[in-house]
Amino acid sequence: MLDVCNWTLKQHATSALGSGGMKGAPKRGNTWNNYQVAYQYPNNINVSIHSTQFGPVFGDVCCRFIGTEGIAEAHYSGGVFINGTKAWDSGIAKTESEVSPEKRAAGVFLSSLHDADANKEKAFITSIESGNHLNHIKPGVESTLTAILGRNAARTGKKTGWDEIIQANERIDPRLNLGQFDKT
C-alpha cells in the first residue's frame, strides 16, 4: 500500500514514527508480526499504515484516503469507491454476499485485482512493441525505502527521517542458507 500512497501523492514520505512487535508471531526467528507507522509527507500530509504479517485469517488490504470532501477507499478484495461530494464506485462488489453465483458467472468479482496480472502483461508487451518502455525502478526503490523508513522508525521507537535512511548505507544480511536449495 505504500507504493499506492507514494503514487497517489506523487512523492515519498519525509519521516516516520512507528511501533510494532512479535505478539502472535510464530515462535521462530525474529521477524516482527505487526507494525503501526505514521508517515509524514510534504505539505503536512499524514499517512498511517497498520500491518499484520501473520494471522489466523486474512483481513483486507486497503488504502483509505480521507479528504475535506469525502473518503476514497481502494481494497484488494472489495472494490474501489469514493464516498463524498464527488461519489464514485468502480462497480466491484464490496462484500462476498453481493456476489451471487449468477453474478460470478457473468464476470462479477470480489477483487479489483482479478485482471491485474493480465493488464500488467499487456502493458509490458505494448511498451516493448511501441518502444515506449516502462521503467518503474524509481517508484519501486522509493516504495522499498518508504517501507524501510517505517520499519526502522518502529524498531527504534524514534522519529526517523528520509535522509537518515538514504545516508545510512545500511546492509541487511538475512543469513539465508541458499545451499539448502542446491539440487546438484
Question: Any overview of this molecule?
Answer:
There is one protein chain. This protein is an alpha+beta fold and 184 residues long. The protein has one domain (2-165): Dihydrodipicolinate Reductase, domain 2 (2-Layer Sandwich). The chain contains five helices and eight strands, in the order H-E-E-E-E-E-E-E-H-H-H-E-H. The chain has a four-stranded antiparallel beta sheet. It has a four-stranded antiparallel beta sheet with strand order 4-5-6-7, with no helix packed on it. A hairpin with a 2-residue loop joins strand 4 (62-67) and strand 5. Helix 1 crosses helix 4.
In helices, the fraction of residues equals 25-40%
Distance between the termini: 39 Å
Morphology: globular
- Mean pLDDT metric: 85
At CATH's second level, what is the architecture?
A: 2-Layer Sandwich
> How many domains make up the 3D coordinates?
1
What percent of residues are in strands?
15-25%
Supply Rg.
20 Å
- Highest CATH level, the class: Alpha Beta
| Strand line-up across the major sheet | 3-2-1-8
Q: List low-confidence stretches.
A: none
* Count of individual helical segments: 5
Find the count of extended strands (DSSP E, 2+ residues).
8
H/E series: HEEEEEEEHHHEH
